[in-house]
Amino acid sequence: MATLAKDFTKGLWKEIPPFRLVLGLCPTLAVTKSAMNGLGMGAAATFVLLMSNIIIASLRNVIPKKVRLASYIVIIATFVVIVENVMQAYTYGLYERLGIFIPLIVVNCIILGRAEAFASKNAVIHSAADGLGMGLGFTISLTVLGALREILGTGSLFGIPVMWSSFEPFTFMVEAPGAFICLGLILGIMNVLGD
Amino acid sequence: MKDIFKMLVVLTLICAVCGLLLAFVREQTKDKIEEQVLLNVKGPAVSKVLQGSENDLIKDRRTIKIDGKEMVVFIGKKENTPWAFAFETSAGGFGGDIGVITGFSLEKNELTGIGITTHKETPGLGSRVTEDSFSMGFKDKPLTSEFKVKADGGVIDAISGATISSRGVCTAVRNAVAVSKEVKNGIK
């Protein structure tokens, strides 16, 4: 039981994907223009991560070693297309804003990384805990980064103004360089805080 | 040999199951997605073109066949009687195809207006075809008008610096006018 909790919580701090493992940076930098975008992207990736971890763990003794990567990619891609369809049908605005980065979840290295490093060697329940933990860690990272950039760049959070009225937004925070600067600062802070 | 056989079977099975699953999801979300696309991409242009209608324009759309091609026609109603219809045509602009919704009045032989749905024109220049100052040039014009830019002997004021984009829109409108009679008969 203790290891199950450990599998879940390691994704939240010790191995939090974008900040500790520095994986999955493409969506991390590109879509975090607002907290809502970060949250949506994180939720989509979490679903894919959780489902692919469960399926891959349950098939781990069936899939031959030589074709494992092909099998993983097919399984991951299937869940990504499901997410894409569902988002397009029910959250069209978010789907438009995330654009190409939803299909690109297929090649997100966190997901293939967890499949290869964890789900292919561990039991279903542990893999589910790992996937959920990593997904939540990814979601939290993206939401925090998105919130930071949105507050500094537009003076609002989730679209609601939060800063004082004379606050002059740093517009560049919602542009690409702002993403690098915010991510760098967060990485630095996390390193100072240490383990 | 046994290895290869196992690989084949496992991969084939995984792909088949995934394919089935995707087909199922696609089937479940297809209608909803179509509606969302219409609402978000074409909706704003359609409601501009058919301004004054009292019905749900997206819901009351009809699909008719013209020359073997399916065409979605939006019908505007006032007091439950149709007064105008609109449909999309496209033509090449400067950066790619420009999609134009053209509205036709059922009462008079006039356009009710045009609206741009999709385009890839240069921001700030060609993209100005989406602005009202340009599209108003088409409003309430009789169908017999020359829908060409003034430089080509027509009645439309081109946007300065974006003649090709303006021409693209005019071509799309002419395409729409050319089939409007058939569409009109089709929705009766």
Description:
- The complex is a heterodimer of chains A (195) and B (188).
- By secondary structure, chain A is mainly α.
- Chain A has one domain.
- In chain A, 68% of the residues lie in helices and 2% in strands.
- Chain A has helices at 2-9, 17-21, 25-30, 35-58, 68-90, 92-98, 109-119, 124-154, 176-193; strands spanning 156-157, 160-161.
- Chain A has a two-stranded antiparallel ribbon.
- In chain A, α4 (35-58) packs across α5 (68-90), α5 (68-90) packs across α7 and α8 crosses α9 (176-193).
- The longest helix of chain A is centred in the last third of the chain and has 31 residues, at 124-154.
- Chain A is globular and about 60 Å long.
- With 188 residues, chain B is α+β, with helices and mostly antiparallel strands.
- Chain B has one domain (47-187).
- Chain B is 41% helix and 22% strand.
- Chain B is built from three helices and five strands.
- Chain B has helices at residues 2-49, 132-135, 163-187, and strands at residues 62-66, 69-78, 81-92, 97-105, 111-116.
- In chain B, strands 1-2-3-4-5 form a five-stranded antiparallel β-sheet.
- In chain B, β3 (81-92) and β4 (97-105) form a beta hairpin.
- Chain B starts with a helix and ends with a helix.
- The chains are: A mainly alpha (195), B alpha+beta (188).
